[in-house]
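Whiteboard transcription, Tuesday session. T.W. wrote the structure tokens on the left side:
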């Protein structure tokens, strides 16, 4: 069988992988989205499913006020002593030379939990991971961040410090073990041990076009570490036409049959402006171990492969989540839904007040970093259609609700129903690009005063086409010209000199700047990939 990369498309960055028995598990970053730390699993590397979120309680993480692309960075998942161990960072701010971060550890007897309350580790840098040595000792690794200005590089290399699991604290002094290579920006450390060698993987070159995986090894845990003669292990910097770009941040795992695999971050640029709408994704590469003991990609190259052979019958693995529909018949949110910075509660999101409907009560606007009534799911395909049914009777112009394509509080596109100043309701298209709000399709469209609506957004070739209809009518009404959806991308955010580490979401929102608290009821949501489009 062949898997077509990325194996986890859409917002699935910074993969950390481990294997327990027949299951492969991959944890990925979630940043300001709730719940924290998404974990997927597979038995055969071809069929992937959601397994769990690890951070599900406010006591484990408080993201209120965190900036876009702050929050949970680069979790590291491992298994030892009959438990899963998860390390994660919470980045509270990144202003100037400062990155305010705390690293935490939680554990669980099974991947589904219950996950423990967090142990606070350190604040010296981000991208922490935990290495379980074969003598039973445990070691924390992380990138060290230097906020000083004069003559100091921000990335100083990789630190290691012992973790006492019984005392639940770090012991001894941290030591530098690897300064990195000329690629610079050394981060994302992961250690494995094989044949008496300690192998250290790091991400280098930054998480954009120069991204790479560096491999070094030493007979001693503390080094010195010798860089692979085949350095870097993987990169796309010299192959700008390769379908997988920005490749780096890797994690090595051995399968039950002794085969080795590299899980790594990648992105897929779209169009001449090379914007990556789906953000940073997770791909898979096969690894060989030649006699010299330096692992290499099976293709005997450091260029990432778009198709990789895995054990199984002939053919390509199925698309990841080609169709997602929620009719809101459950009393809890489906795990494919995420919220911003906090868990939902009945004060603003309910599946019980009106069975068969998701009820949202408007709070602050989508420009806020507090109390945003938005529930959304990852966009995983570049050709797809989203449709939702909406029952909403705004009391006045303060209230609005609808369908949104969202990157962050400064980059989103919304097809929204709102109240009119003179009564009634209207339909409008709102575009927020680098913080500038406009109405690109012109004046508001008057709507019938009553009746449920269906709203639809179709994505093709980076363009978004919007339309609507009354549920009682078969006639669809186009909203106008298609819109540039690539403003909802990592690269557009970077053009505005802001951090951009997530990816595009599509979802449902309500906002209310008055006191009406009129609910918006959503009857179903459906997101369908065009399976005939190129992967």
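and on the right, the sequence the group agreed on:
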């Amino acid at each position: 069988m062949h898997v077509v990369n990325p194996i986890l498309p859409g917002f699935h960055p910074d993969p950390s992988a481990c294997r327990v028995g027949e299951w492969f598990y991959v944890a990925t970053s979630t940043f300001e989205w709730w719940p924290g730390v998404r974990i997927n699993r597979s038995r055969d590397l071809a069929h992937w499913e959601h397994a769990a979120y690890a951070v599900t309680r406010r006591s484990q993480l408080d993201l209120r006020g965190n900036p876009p692309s702050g929050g949970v960075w680069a979790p590291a998942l491992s298994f030892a002593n009959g438990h899963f161990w998860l390390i994660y960072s919470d980045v509270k701010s990144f202003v100037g030379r400062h990155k305010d971060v705390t690293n935490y550890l939680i554990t669980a007897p099974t991947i589904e939990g219950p996950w423990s309350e967090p142990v606070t580790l350190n604040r010296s840098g981000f991208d922490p991971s935990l290495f379980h040595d074969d003598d039973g000792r445990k070691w924390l690794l992380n990138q060290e961040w230097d906020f000083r200005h004069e003559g100091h590089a921000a990335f100083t290399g990789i630190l290691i410090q012992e973790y006492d699991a019984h005392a639940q604290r770090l012991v001894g002094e941290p030591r530098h073990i690897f300064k990195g290579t000329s690629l610079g920006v050394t981060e994302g450390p992961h250690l494995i041990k094989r044949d008496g060698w300690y192998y250290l993987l790091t991400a280098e070159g930054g998480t954009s076009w120069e991204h790479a995986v560096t491999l070094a090894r030493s007979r001693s845990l503390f080094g010195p570490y010798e860089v692979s003669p085949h350095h870097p292990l993987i990169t796309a910097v010299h192959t700008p036409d390769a379908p997988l770009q920005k490749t780096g941040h890797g994690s090595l795992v051995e399968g039950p049959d002794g085969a080795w695999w590299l899980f790594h971050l990648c992105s897929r640029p779209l169009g001449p402006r090379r914007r990556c709408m789906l953000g940073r994704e997770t791909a898979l590469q096969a690894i060989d171990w030649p006699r010299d003991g330096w692992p290499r990609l099976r293709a005997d190259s450091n260029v990432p492969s778009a198709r990789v052979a895995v054990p199984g019958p002939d053919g390509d693995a199925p698309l990841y989540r080609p169709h997602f529909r929620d009719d809101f018949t459950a009393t809890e949110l489906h795990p494919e839904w995420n919220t911003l910075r906090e868990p939902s509660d009945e004060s603003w999101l309910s599946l019980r007040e009106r069975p068969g409907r998701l009820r949202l009560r408007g709070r602050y606007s989508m420009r806020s970093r507090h109390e945003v009534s938005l529930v959304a799911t990852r966009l995983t395909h570049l050709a797809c259609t989203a449709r939702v049914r909406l029952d909403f009777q705004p009391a006045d112009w303060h209230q609005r609700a609808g369908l949104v394509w969202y990157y962050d509080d400064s980059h989103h596109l919304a097809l929204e129903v709102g109240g009119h100043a003179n009564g009634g309701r209207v339909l409008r298209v709102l575009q927020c690009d680098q913080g500038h709000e406009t109405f690109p399709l012109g004046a508001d469209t008057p709507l019938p005063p009553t009746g449920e609506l269906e709203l639809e957004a179709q994505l093709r070739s980076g363009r978004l086409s919007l339309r609507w209809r009354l549920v009682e009518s078969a006639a669809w009404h186009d909203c106008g010209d298609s819109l540039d959806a690539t403003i909802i991308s990592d690269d557009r955010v970077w053009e505005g000199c802001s951090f951009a580490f997530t990816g595009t979401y599509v979802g449902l929102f309500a906002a209310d700047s008055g006191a009406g608290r009129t609910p918006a009821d959503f009857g179903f949501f459906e997101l369908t990939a065009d399976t005939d489009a190129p992967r």
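Someone added at the bottom: The helical segments are 490-495.
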